[in-house]
Specification:
Number of helices: 42
Radius of gyration: 45 Å
Distance between the termini: 60 Å
Largest sheet: 5 strands, antiparallel
Structural class: alpha+beta
Number of strands: 19
Helix content: 40-55%
Shape: extended
Length: 1116
């Protein structure tokens, strides 16, 4: 069948048809006139031929007019189709097509006039009209392959002419159709002037560089209001019409028609500040652009070589003068992915602004070179949109009375637009039905009849086409039919209809289905798939108990890694279980929907099934067994969970915990013998159960010592194990002490001006950090200036996974470390536990109690205790403000609030005070006014820096306190003086907290003299003595290399490797003490010091596994 597409229109079009004629081409008698036809018959020409006119829509009833228009169209179409079929001569065929085109053109004019009348009454709808030229409205639909109709024969004898009357007599007796007077439809006496649409000017603010700008969370209405307010403040700035977000999350701002680009560019700074991103967004005008196809570009010299990069492609194309002058919107890019290019030549695309299409037409005629060769410039053809939806009502399908062609009116839907397409079938046969649906059914019946005629079973035919018959697999026609079937989206609906046949209009029993057969096949297929996936999942190497020692191996057993393994090896099983566990969830008793994620449950189920198949697949079970052991889960519960394949057995857990303790102890001794390390120890109070108890006493507490060993990098060995330098320094100090000339700290060393200047400058930038935390200033451009960024410390510890601390816990000892006797026994016990008491260089040839080992020891500051004491000595007014707050209620059982509560309070208090000082310095009364003051376009970073220095010197410094005390005789303001002192002390506390958290050990050393003065004034002799001894050691009893090493290895540790995850060594020891209390043997389970000593090396493993499992459950 050959088809030719004729006309495609964007609205329902009316057709004008020929009068009904008999076989001799004479007008037929007029049938009895119905009321509707009586009105139409009044519009006839001199020969009685009807001319259908469409009445213009009435202002009072638009919908009725539209229905009349459609009714006229369908009635005319039916009258046209009922003309008797006869073979026509070429002149009549050509005249019929001309009449058809003329009628369609008339209907278009009537539709346009009706639209004009509507827009005349409702001018605001003018931009919504789609009145375009017929050629501009043509949609390029995929048309069937068309063949040119056969040319007319040269000899006219092939046309059967009627004998009477002759063609000449009939032609001369009839008035030519082109000269007939046509009564054109009209909608009014005076045609109104067409409304010329004024399109607004649009700009596009591209936000692709910043994925999460602050403006993206604002609705378009809020953005428009803020932009309007900014425009009102600028002279001669245009006022926008509106703002909206497009599908690519870009901001579209519209301005009135005629607004110049120069005027719009005045608003660029306001738009930049409104977006709030660090990088300036790209702003461009919304100009129509076009794309061209560059074919035959040399991508590589040989198929074995790599593809030329797109950067080189752009460089060579932009050498052409025709492309240099373009405003390019899409840079030259390969049409295919580099891995998909097989030959040496390929294609590329380039897009550019082209409002009227003239640039594209010029490029198509230009000669373009790339890599020294000419390339072919083609017009780019976009693919058809995938969201075309065919309307469900059947298409109109009739036979043309003039040409005997089948005319089909197909309707379909594009987004929000109803379209119609007229298709003319040139090879129409008279035996064809009058409906496309009937025609399709007729073809299917013909196929079934043909199969029956050639004695081929339908099932055998389908089986052979779908890879069943070996001979059919290589046949080209069979391959084409098979591909058409697979790609045509027929398979799934076919199986659904076979499994449960749909109801038909005929009554009776529903046809037999293949439900049982297909269900059995689906079950067998799923079981085979699950078995294959579980076999693949079981091939994962099992985890040995010693792998829990290595943090990297333990990290590989995290929930995220286990989940990825399940998804990679068992994708189908994971999806099925996840769907079943989340399908149609029941609501909770309170009425809230259950939004719990089922992924953790699915991972556990898949691991349980794999463990049921083979007990070697137990990685997930081992992880949970360690967690349950550290959580003191009772034995009956663990046995029940083991029966459910959730964890290992109770006996396996206890046996392997002991093996793990032995493995860690052996590894720790090996490290101590071969690598440098340092120790920390602290007193710990353990609660034990008692065998016989009184009514008021069910447990007893005993003191012990928890010890932790930290492994140092190999670079520290050369510093601490340099006998020549260290022994010479020690001998020199020994001689000076004997002579009474031992060096001591002096006031110039404590009051070093350079050190005080570093501390003062370091604290200044805390004010800018707090300013950036104010809502609305997080992404402020002026605060992002490098002038206001924190410069860091002169000695900052490096971060990263390679700098994470490696530690081991020694066996907890029954030594009361808080006493002098217990403290002296710690070193001997450590040497014994690490096997260093035999043959060690430190004690060889000397009595180990003569102090040789102790002289080689070096004490450092317990920063967490000093930090806690610093917060405890803050002015009482800070705590008075917090009365009634959670954690600060008066409690007679405790002498001081919790450490973390105190730190949180002091940080919040200091932030609030600094915000108030910024408002004081800027001369505003609210935070909103402060935000506006900072975001003022005329504000410079230097102004903010100067104001910060003023706030620091006048309100947050020792200088401000001294000046206030000097003026106390004239202005006695005790409250103001107390406020200045509190601000100064809070700044010191905040600075120390920031330095500890971010690893600024240089700043921490600079603060030791200030802490010495503070603790001395507060009456804390112990902490003041500790600070003094630390300064004495750093300044006079160590070499510069050792001083640097003490800061690097003796102040802070970092377990996670992040830049803000540093904490003091003694805080790490406190964490380990808490781990012993939480994960050690239960107090009433018959535990003793021997059991605590056995379980202590496993405490870090318990802590890591517990953190990992609990985070996985909370995040899943």
């Amino acid at each position: 069948m050959s088809t030719i597409p004729i006309y495609t229109t964007s609205a329902c079009k009316s057709l004008n048809y020929f009068p009904k004629t008999d076989d001799h081409h004479q007008p037929m008698s007029t049938p009895p006139a119905a009321p509707l036809k009586r009105r139409r018959r009044s519009l006839c020409d001199a020969n009685g031929s009807p001319t259908y006119a469409v009445k213009a829509p009435s202002v009072n009833d638009w919908s009725s007019s539209l229905r009349n228009l459609c009714d006229t169209f369908y009635t005319a179409f039916e009258d046209f189709a009922k003309v008797p079929q006869s073979k026509k001569l070429p002149p009549e065929i050509l005249e019929g097509y001309g009449e058809l085109r003329l009628t369609l053109s008339c209907l278009i004019a009537n539709v346009d006039e009706a639209c004009h009348r509507i827009t005349a009454h409702y001018p605001h709808l003018a931009n919504q009209t789609r009145m375009k030229d017929a050629s501009a409205q043509t949609d390029d639909l995929p048309s069937p392959t068309s063949e040119a109709p056969p040319p007319p024969p040269a000899n006219k004898e092939h046309y059967p002419l009627p004998t009477s009357p002759t063609y000449a007599s009939v032609a001369s007796a009839r008035t030519p159709r082109r000269t007939r007077p046509r009564l054109l439809p009209s909608t009014s006496n005076a045609k109104p002037t067409a409304v010329k649409p004024l399109n607004p000017v649009h700009i596009v603010v591209q936000l692709k560089r910043d994925l999460t700008p602050p403006i993206r969370n604002l609705p378009a209405r809020e953005v428009f209001c803020r932009l309007t307010e900014s425009c009102a403040k600028l002279p001669n700035a245009p006022i926008p019409l509106g703002a909206q977000w497009n599908r690519k999350n870009n901001l579209i701002v519209s301005f009135p028609a005629g607004t110049t680009r120069t005027a719009i560019k005045l608003l660029y700074p306001s738009i930049h500040s409104l977006v709030g991103s660090v990088d300036k967004p790209v702003i461009r005008f919304d100009v129509p652009w076009r794309k061209v196809h560059l074919a035959g570009i040399l991508a590589r010299e040989s198929p074995d070589l790599p593809i030329t990069s797109e950067a080189e492609l752009r460089h060579t194309l932009l050498l052409n003068p025709a492309l240099q002058a373009l405003n390019i919107t899409v840079q030259p890019t390969w049409l295919k992915k580099p891995e998909s290019i097989t030959g040496t030549h390929t294609s590329a695309i380039i897009a550019f602004e082209d409002p009227d299409g003239s640039i594209e037409r010029a490029l198509l005629k230009s000669t373009i070179f790339a890599f020294g060769e000419t390339v072919t410039v083609k017009k780019w053809h976009d693919q058809l949109p995938a969201n075309i939806t065919v309307v469900t009502f059947p298409p109109l399908c009739y036979v043309c009375p003039v040409s005997s062609y089948l005319v089909v009116l197909v309707s379909y839907l594009r987004p929000s637009v109803l379209r119609f397409t007229v298709i003319v079938v040139t090879s129409y046969h008279r035996a064809w039905p009058q409906s496309v649906v009937e025609y399709m059914e007729w073809k299917k019946k013909k196929v079934v009849e043909l199969l029956k005629k050639i004695e081929l079973d339908f099932g055998e035919f389908v089986w052979a086409v779908c890879f069943g018959n070996h001979a059919s697999r290589a046949c080209k026609k069979m391959q084409a039919a098979r591909s058409s079937f697979i790609k045509g989206n027929y398979l799934v609906p076919l199986l659904e209809n076979i499994r449960v046949p749909p109801r038909t209009e005929a009554k009776g029993k529903r046809p037999d289905s293949a439900k049982d057969t297909l269900d059995r096949f689906a079950l067998a297929t799923m079981c085979s798939t699950f078995q294959r996936e579980l076999t693949s999942y079981g091939s994962i190497p099992p985890v040995h108990i010693r792998d829990f020692i290595d943090p990297e191996r333990l990290g590989a057993m995290s929930y995220a890694k286990l989940k990825k393994q399940v998804e990679d090896h068992c994708p189908t099983l994971f999806k099925v279980l996840h769907y079943l566990s989340s399908f149609n969830r029941q609501k909770r008793s309170l009425g809230n929907a259950n939004t719990k994620n089922s992924e953790f449950f699915v991972v556990m189920q898949v691991s349980g099934i794999s463990y049921e198949i083979s007990q070697v697949n137990n990685n997930f079970q081992k992880l949970l067994s360690i967690y349950f052991s550290g959580a003191h889960v009772p034995k009956p519960v663990i046995e029940l969970l083991n029966r459910c394949n959730i964890c290992m057995s109770y006996s396996w857990t206890n046996d392997n915990i002991d093996k793990l303790s032995d493995e860690i102890t052996a590894k720790m001794i090996e490290v101590a013998l071969n690598q440098p390390f340092f120790l920390s120890h602290d007193n710990i109070q353990i609660v034990f159960g008692v065998g016989s108890q009184r009514g008021y006493r069910k447990s007893i507490a005993d003191n012990g010592t928890a010890i932790t060993m930290y492994v140092l990098p190999e670079a520290a060995r050369a510093i601490f194990e340099n006998p020549e330098v260290n022994n010479a320094l020690r001998l020199k100090l020994h001689n000076l002490r004997r002579q009474g000339l031992a060096p001591a700290l002096t006031w110039p060393e404590l009051n070093d001006r350079q050190r005080r200047s570093r501390v003062f400058n370091h604290r200044l930038y805390h004010l800018f950090d707090i300013l950036r935390h104010i809502p609305g200033l997080e992404k402020c451009e002026v605060l992002s200036d490098p002038l206001l960024q924190h410069p860091g410390s002169w000695h900052t510890l490096p971060a990263g996974l390679e700098h994470c601390i490696k530690m081991y816990m020694l066996a907890t000892q029954n030594l009361d470390e808080s006493t002098y006797a217990g403290n002296l026994q710690v070193i001997d016990t450590v040497l014994r536990l690490l096997k260093l008491d035999r043959g060690d260089p430190l004690v060889r040839g000397a009595d180990k109690h003569n102090g040789t080992v102790k002289e080689n020891g070096m004490a450092v500051i317990a920063w967490i205790h000093s930090f806690s004491s610093l917060g405890g000595f803050m002015p009482k007014c800070v705590f008075v403000l917090s009365l009634g707050r959670k954690g600060f209620a008066e409690n007679m059982r405790t002498t001081r609030p919790d450490y973390h509560t105190v730190v949180e309070l002091l940080i919040h208090e200091f932030n609030a005070r600094v915000r108030g000082l910024w408002m004081w310095g800027a001369g505003v009364s609210t935070l909103e006014e402060l935000v506006s003051w900072i975001k003022d376009p005329s504000r410079t970073p230097q102004e903010i820096l100067d104001l910060g220095k003023r706030i620091q010197s006048e309100r947050i410094s020792s200088q401000a306190v001294s000046e206030c005390r000097q003026t106390m005789d004239q202005h006695k303001d005790e409250v103001f003086l107390s406020t200045l002192i509190t601000n100064r002390d809070l700044m010191m506390h905040y600075d120390l907290h920031h330095a500890v958290k971010h690893g600024h050990v240089g700043e921490m050393e600079d603060m030791i003299p200030e802490l010495l003065v503070y603790f001395t004034g507060a009456g804390s002799k112990n902490y003041a003595r500790e600070m003094y001894e630390m300064l004495q050691m750093l300044y006079h009893e160590t070499t510069p290399e050792m001083r640097t090493a003490i800061r690097t290895y003796g102040f802070l540790v970092n377990k996670y490797g992040r830049k803000d995850s540093f904490y003091p060594i003694d805080k790490r020891q406190e964490f380990n003490n808490g781990g012993i209390r939480r994960h050690g043997p239960p107090p009433h389970g018959g535990a003793d010091w021997e059991r605590y000593a056995k379980i202590s090396p496993v405490i870090p493993v318990y802590m890591d596994v517990t953190e990992q499992v609990e985070q996985s459950v909370s995040s899943s």
